[in-house]
Amino acid sequence: MFIGHFAVGFASKRWAPDTSLGILFAAVQGPDLLWPVFLLLGIEQVRIAPGDTAMTPLEFVHYPWSHSLVMVCVWAVVAALLARSAPARDARAATRRALVVAAGVLSHWCLDAATHRPDLPLLPGGTARAGLDLWRSVPATVVVESLMYAVGVAIYLKSTRPLDGRGRWLPAALAVLLAALYAAAILGPPPPSVAAIAWTSIAGGLLFLALAAWADRHRVAAL
Fold first, then answer.
1. Contact status, residue 54 vs residue 137, Cβ threshold 8 Å
2. Residues 205, 146: contact at Cβ < 8 Å?
3. If you average pLDDT over residues 16-33, what whole number do you get?
4. Which 8-state DSSP code applies to residue 219?
5. What are the tens digits of pLDDT across the range 108-141?
6. Which terminus of the chain has fewer Cβ atoms in its 10 Å neighbourhood, N or C?
7. DSSP H stretches of helix in 86-193
8. H/E element, 30
9. CA 142: distance to chain centroid?
10. Taking a C-beta distance cutoff of 8 angstroms, is the pair 22, 216 a contact?
11. Which residues contact 206 (CB under 8 A, 6 or more apart)?
């Protein structure tokens, strides 16, 4: 899943109004931010295999440290502790931010489990795999993710208001950019190499976080 994760990030602002959208995006993308680093380190493995699923040319061979259920739970706890320790308006706001961030990290595994074929490990070293294989159908995947995305963006826009002109157009530009990249990923050719996947994922992930934080600085919680 791609824009479905960002849908959760956008919507999360409703429950964590004092938290930057960049942080919320980092939470919902957490496992996918770790994954390309682990690929480059040789800890995890992916194979370019057009036709492995209808939706993506990638075969996720081995990725228990970034995407297994147990490790995603660990990453959620780590993310929550980091979020809880950051400066906040008061203890209640810090706790809420930590819970929303943890939920965002956990949502990543749940959404991947809905879309992947049964290749998501439950724990490192285990043989059990999860996956409902929504990716077997491109139209079904696009419809589900697009509806999620529209709802998520709408919740964000309703939960916040612009401070200035940038606050009006930056979130819209970010939403359009993500949707365009989603379409390009579906319609475009397979990536040339695993290294290209890793470096593009790292650069793209950091870019999205920066753009989200920038856009969100120009909006505040709606009254």
1. yes
2. no
3. 96
4. E
5. 999 999 999 999 999 998 899 999 999 999 999 9
6. C
7. 91-115, 138-159, 165-187
8. helix 30-41
9. 16
10. yes
11. none
